[in-house]
From TrEMBL:
<keyword id="KW-0472">Membrane</keyword>
<feature type="transmembrane region" description="Helical">
    <location>
        <begin position="219"/>
        <end position="238"/>
    </location>
</feature>
<keyword id="KW-1133">Transmembrane helix</keyword>
<keyword id="KW-0812">Transmembrane</keyword>
<dbReference type="InterPro" id="IPR030802">
    <property type="entry name" value="Permease_MalE"/>
</dbReference>
<protein>
    <submittedName>
        <fullName>ABC transporter permease</fullName>
    </submittedName>
</protein>
<dbReference type="Pfam" id="PF02405">
    <property type="entry name" value="MlaE"/>
</dbReference>
<feature type="transmembrane region" description="Helical">
    <location>
        <begin position="250"/>
        <end position="268"/>
    </location>
</feature>
<feature type="transmembrane region" description="Helical">
    <location>
        <begin position="186"/>
        <end position="207"/>
    </location>
</feature>
<feature type="transmembrane region" description="Helical">
    <location>
        <begin position="68"/>
        <end position="91"/>
    </location>
</feature>
<feature type="transmembrane region" description="Helical">
    <location>
        <begin position="156"/>
        <end position="180"/>
    </location>
</feature>
Amino acid sequence: MSMNSHAAIAPSLLARIGAPVRRRAAFLLLMASLGLGVLREAALGDAWRRPVRAEFRRVLREAAGGGFSTIAVTAALIGLGLVSQAIYWLGEAGQEGIVGTVLVTVLVRELAPVLVGFVLLGRSGMVAIVELGAMQAGGQLRALQGMGLDPFRLLVLPRVAAFAVTGFTLGIIFVLIALLTGFVAGSLLGVVQLSLFGFLDAVLRAMGARDFLLFPGKLVMIGALVGLTSTITGLSARRGDSTATLLPRGFLRGVLAVLLCSALLSLAV
C-alpha cells in the first residue's frame, strides 16, 4: 500500500472516530450550559412570570400526580422483596441491630434515587420529549420567539424545576412506603421485635450527616437531569426525527444521566 493510501485512510478513520465523540461532547456541554442557565434564571424573580409559573404548576401536577401510583406500587414491591427480607434474615442471624444501617446503605443511599429517576424518566420525561419534539418540528418555537417569548424560560426552566421538585417528593414517598410495607410484612412474619416508631427511629439513627445531604441532593439532581436530558432531546429534534427515534435517544440519555449522577455523588460525598 502506498504512502498516499495511508494518508487517505488516516483522516477518514479519525473522522469516523471523532464525529460521535464531538456529538457526545457537544451534548454534555449543552447540558452543562443549560443547567447553569436554569440555576441562574431560577434565582431571578423576574424569570417567574405568570406563564412560567403556570407551566411549572402544570408540569409539576402531571409529573408528581402521574408518577405517584407507579412509585407507590414499586415501593411496595421493594418493601416486600428487600426490606422485609432484610429484617427477616438479619433477625435469623441475630443481627437485628444493623437493620437500620443496611436499609440506609442499600435503600436510601442507592436504590431509591435511581428507581425514582427511572420512573420519572419513563412517566414524565418521555412525555416532555414528545411535546417539545412536536413543537420543534411544527415551528411553534419560532412562533414563540416571533411573539417575543423566551422558549428557555417558558419551556426549559419550568420543566427542569418541576422535575427536580418531583424527584425529591417522589423519593421521600418511595422510602416511606417501602419501609412501612417492609415493616408490616415483617410483623406478619413475626420477625419484627420493634414497634413501628422504634423501627423508623432505628433507620433515622443509622443515617449520618452525610446521608441527610446525599439523599435529598441525589433526588433533586437526578430529577433536574431527567428534565434537562428530556428537554434537550425534544428541542434538538432534527428534520426527519420521529417518536421512534427521539424516545430511544432520550431514554438512553436519561438512564445514563441517572446512573452517572448517582454513582458520582456516592463517590464524592
